[in-house]
Amino acid sequence: MIVAVETRPLTSARIPLFGTLERQPADALLGLIGLCRRDPRPDKIDLGVGVYRNDAGETPVLRAIKDAEHRLADTQATKAYLGAEGDARFVELLAPIVFGAAQAAEPCLTGVQTPGGTGALRLGAELVARGSRQPTVWIGTPTWPNHAPIFREAGLEVRAHPFFDAVTGTVDFSAMVGALEQATAGDVVLLHGCCHNPTGAELTQAQWADLIALLTKRQLTPFIDLAYQGLGRGLDSDAAATRALLAAMPEAIVAYSCDKNFGLYRDRVGALWVKAADGAAIAAVRDNLLVLARSLWSMPPDHGAAAVREILEDAALTGLWKTELEDMRARIAGLRAALAHAEPRLSALGDQGGMFAMLPLTHEAVLELRTDHGIYMADSGRINIAGLRSETVAPFVAAIAPHLQR
Ligand code: PMP
Questions:
Q1: Which one of 283, 315, 347 terminates a domain?
Q2: Please, which pLDDT band fits residue 30 given cuts at 50, 70 and 90?
Q3: Both 383 and 240 in a single domain?
């Protein structure tokens, strides 16, 4: 509808549109990249930003992706628009990897391509905000720093619950359960499907079962963030909690990223799946996802998802990708074992999963390690384990040992 606008004479000074905006802090982790880059020391160790690195310290494009990109260059006939759901075939081929074949075929599950895991989280948050319940979103602390802003920007209330026991380096499950007992029916609980960022701490199988019982009893909906499938214990093991949650809960949301396990970071490849209670609800969910996506980004960027589709459509390329992913996973697991072996106070790292661990270091120690040793990690003491190389494990452990708090 177009509304007629009454024109009024200009009587006062113009009020600037952006006059009340406040300056915002720069992203600390991105700032760390610059600091590390400017450090001339040849033996500096970059454990900051969360990208996988090989033993040479590089983040190369996977060979499976390069092959898929060559195929795309040769065969892609058009770059005409896709729809708001992105590449439907990419979503269809990815679903069985995430959920297993049977669950992927569930009629009450619907999925769309998104710009990375971040886009999936935001789209899911917008969908939750569109529902009638206006739930609180419960988020464990610490967590990926972008989680709370994503939900808040979608207009949702966010509440923190304890998650990590820094002394033992494991999940503080009783504190987590105690907090979630306070949640109101209809609330949403954000869960890391595997490879917790930033702590690496994971629930045991028994704890997942207890958590599912709690979610069921209190009528809470899981919102699973699965950003590192295959980088923890393996593709199926890393998806086990997600699958168990989906099997048990009538409604669930899964935000997925291909940016780590396919090494596609800047190409922004992800997907969002929603499970709804029945056929009518899932049809409405899909309609709303498409309308929301249309206004958020119209349609997701194609290239990375098309490359993943090429891989998953071809058995040989899928095999190559799985081998490369397993190499990455094994390297991270090897570094975890080496750290745990080198220093008894790091033994928890050997039992955790994924690229990240949170070291028991004070803020002062983190800064001192940066200045005195050229060791770059997030202010919180989070390290990207994949930033280590076989030969830097020993000097790294020697440098941090005097500062460890546990
Ligand atoms: N969730 C978690 C826990 C993450 O660590 C990240 C990336 N750092 C994301 C989601 C988002 O991933 P993407 O780059 O695909 O947006």
A1: 315
A2: confident
A3: no
Is residue 260 among the annotated active site residues? yes
Residue type, 130: R
Same domain, 140 and 32: no
78 and 49 in one domain? no
225 is catalytic: yes
Q: What is the pTM of this model?
A: 0.95
Tens-place pLDDT, residues 282-315 = 999 999 999 999 999 999 999 999 999 999 999 9
How many Å lie between the centroid of ligand 1 and the Cα of residue 297? 18
Phi first, then psi, for residue 107 (nearest 5°) are: -70, -20
Tell me how far the alpha carbon of residue 186 is from its chain's centroid.
23
Encode burial over 27-59: b for 16+ CB neighbours within 10 A, e otherwise: eebeebeeebeeeeeeebbbbbbbbbbeeeeee
Residue 371 neighbours by CB under 8 Å, 6+ apart: none
Active-site residue flag, 144: yes
Domain that holds residue 381: 28-60+318-403
Measured in angstroms, how far is the CA atom of residue 404 from the centroid of ligand 1?
A: 28
Query: To which residue do tokens 């029916």 refer?
Result: 185
Q: pLDDT (tens digit, 9 = 90+) per residue, 196-213?
A: 999 999 999 999 999 999
Same domain, 48 and 121: no
- Looking up tokens 């030969």 gives 391
CATH of the domain at 219: 3.40.640.10
- CA distances 221 to 8, 136, 180, 225, Å, are 50, 11, 12, 13
**8-state DSSP, 84:** T
With CA atoms as reference, report the closest residue to 382 among 351, 359, 399, 352: 359
